[in-house]
Amino acid sequence: MADNLDHRKISNILKELRKVGGRRPQLQVDFDDERVDWKSFGIYTEQGKPSIGEDQEVKYRWTLDDGRALHSRWIGKRGHVRFHLDRRDPTSSPFGHLLEDTYAPHGALVGALVGGLTSGRAGGALAGMIMGGAGGTLFDPGPSSVWVLASLEGDGQWRVRRVDERWDTEWAGTLG
Phi and psi dihedrals of 24, rounded to 5? Predict the structure, then answer.
């Protein structure tokens, strides 16, 4: 299991994918993928597979040394997990996370404009800003690209394949 992927290695792949995969690349891994050290994630069965029920969807975060967080979304009915990097870990920088990883600033701006224009008052703009910002935190921007692990070699070489409908691309790197 030493060569298998854990949360640190997955975060390193995602850092590389940011160079080619856009603002929010996601790495999708099937639950039955034996190249992943599922025990390192802390949610597993005796067989070492993820312990997520078919009707469940679970999210977890792991804090990284550089202030980011590896965020995962485990989808039981699809049998896979999708990982992406948060630019700011919300446990250590909640305000930074709101500004950099959500649409709260966009929602606040739109809400302030709409509230101010419709009410003609500063109070309306403030109320619109608060409501728009709160709404922006609930909006999921979704991935800019989804990648699957095509290969993982014993020497740390990896290859991923983009799986969204617009692209048929591969990218490779070495685990650091």
Answer: -140, 70
